[in-house]
Structures are given as structure tokens and as C-alpha cells.
Amino acid sequence: EALLSVQGVSKTYPDPHSKGEFQALSNASIDVMPGECVGLIGPSGCGKSTLARIIARLEKADQGSVTFCGQTVAADKKLSLEAKRNLRKTWLGMQMIFQNPEASFSPSMSIGDGIREGLVYQEGYDRKSAKKRVSELLEAVGLPASYASKRCFELSGGECQRAAIARAIIASPRLLICDEPTSALDVTVQARIMELLKELRKETNTAFLFITHNMPLMSEFCTRAYTMRAGTIEAELISDSK
Ligand code: ADP
Ligand code: ADP
């Protein structure tokens, strides 16, 4: 069974130029199996980020469905508090890192508090053990534990992206959506972040939806990939398993 299933998703935005509508996504479908690393590549403006944001529930689709771990969210459903809590817990298993690392952190919050937000809905963490977990994760992504008290704007881009990865993986996600995770970083920093993501892949069974412009990077990292054009997911680009 697919871990993530996107079926026929469409999305229009108001078009400021024509006063009409602009179709950012039209009937886009994509599946990710558990532990799989699926790439998505396409020209700027073709709808990749829109699709990522819809999958991560940062935005709503006009049409179509997104199912994760067998659960679909229906906005109009009246749910009990307990059911909502369980649903949130499932969806916490999907995390995202953005092109701009600062997008993962509120500027008013310390890195440590930001990372700790990922522990909400996880059992067995009091203040002290949560703090310890944050230190462990900072070290795992190659940052000193003392960075917990810093704000993201005090960090370099590469450091902040490391912290964003720590924020995403504290919830032990089953799926990590990476939207151009290294394109705002310089080349050496980019390579280090990719090493970190590769390590994560090796050590856990995290599945990836990996969005990038960088074809060599994608063929190195992904086991399957799709091209996207004008709001539609087109050809399957890589289909061999590594
Ligand atoms: P990509 O990630 O492939 O570069 P995006 O998903 O960011 O593409 O954007 C797809 C199209 O939708 C672009 O033409 C963009 O201008 C438009 N778009 C994205 N977000 C919005 C928004 N919030 N309001 C209006 N138009 C948007
Ligand atoms: P708000 O307090 O505005 O409702 P959120 O709790 O949604 O903000 O998110 C707080 C910050 O975390 C935001 O800056 C947002 O971009 C970032 N964020 C939200 N969801 C994720 C995610 N799945 N992975 C990483 N960062 C996220």
C-alpha cells in the first residue's frame, strides 16, 4: 500500500494580470511507497511547490485527494476531539523542509523551542527529556547543542537548514518532503546537507519526496522520478530501483 497517494489534485489562483484564474495544478497524481525516494523535477513555475504545500496541508486543493498512511482528511467532517488528535498524530509523520531554511522557524522562537514543537503528540516527553532529545538531534545534524538558544537569523543558511532537518526528524517522520532543500545554499554547503539526507535515508526507513532543479543531484538521490510541466505530472523519468 502506498504511504502517500495524491489523486487528481487541481488548484487555481487568481491571476493578477488577466483578472481571471491561473491553473497552478491540473489533475496531478503521484504515489510514494514506504521507504521510497521519489524525485520531482520541472521548470520554475510549473507547480512543484504548490503540490508540496498541498501534500503537507499548508494549503488546500480545489479538487482531488491526498491520502497519507491510509488516512484522508475531509475538511467538512465533524470529528471527535480524540479522532482529531489521532489524525494529527498520523500527519505529524509527514514533515517538510523548505528552500529557505528560515521558513521552518518562527523568528521569535529559539531553535530549540522550534525543534521541540515536533514532540507535540509524542508520549513520554517531559521538559527535561525533551531538552535532552533536542541536544541529541542538534548533534546528529552536526550543530553544537548550545545552538538551541539561538534564533535562526543568527545562523548561517547551511546551519539553519541543518536545524530545520532536526526539526523535521524529531517526529520520526515516515515521509520527508524536500522542496529545493539546497538551492539557497552554496555548493559546498549543499553537498554537506545532501550527505546528511543520505545518512538519514540509510539509518531510517524514511521515504522522500524530493523536489529539485538539479538533475545530477536527483538521479544520485532518487530511486524513481517524475517530470512536471504546467501543473501536470508527466513522464516517469527514472524507474529503476537502486
Ligand atoms: P514551482 O515550485 O514549480 O516553481 P509554484 O508551485 O511555486 O511553482 O508556482 C506555480 C504557479 O502558481 C506560479 O505561476 C506561481 O506564480 C503561482 N502561484 C503560486 N502560489 C501562488 C499564490 N499564493 N497566489 C497566486 N499565484 C501563486
Ligand atoms: P503558526 O504559528 O503560524 O500557525 P505553524 O505552527 O504552522 O505556524 O508553523 C510554525 C513554523 O513552522 C512556520 O514557520 C512554518 O513554516 C514551519 N512549519 C510548519 N509546518 C512544518 C513542517 N511540516 N516542517 C517544517 N516546518 C514546518
Automatic annotation (TrEMBL):
Q: Name one GO biological process term.
A: transmembrane transport
In Swiss-Prot or TrEMBL terms, this protein is called ABC transporter ATP-binding protein
- A Pfam family hit: ABC_tran
Note the Gene3D superfamilies from the entry: P-loop containing nucleotide triphosphate hydrolases
Entry coiled-coil feature ranges: none
Annotated organism of origin: Senegalimassilia faecalis
Q: Which PROSITE patterns match?
A: ABC_TRANSPORTER_1 (PS00211), ABC_TRANSPORTER_2 (PS50893)
One of the record's GO molecular function terms: ATP hydrolysis activity
| The keyword Phosphoprotein is assigned to this record | no
Could you say which residues form the signal peptide?
none
Q: Does the keyword Nuclease apply?
A: no
Limits of the ABC transporter domain: 4-241
PANTHER family per the UniProt record, alphabetical: TRANSPORT ATP-BINDING PROTEIN (PTHR43776)
What keywords are assigned to this protein? Answer: ATP-binding, Nucleotide-binding, Transport
Lineage of source species: Bacteria, Bacillati, Actinomycetota, Coriobacteriia, Coriobacteriales
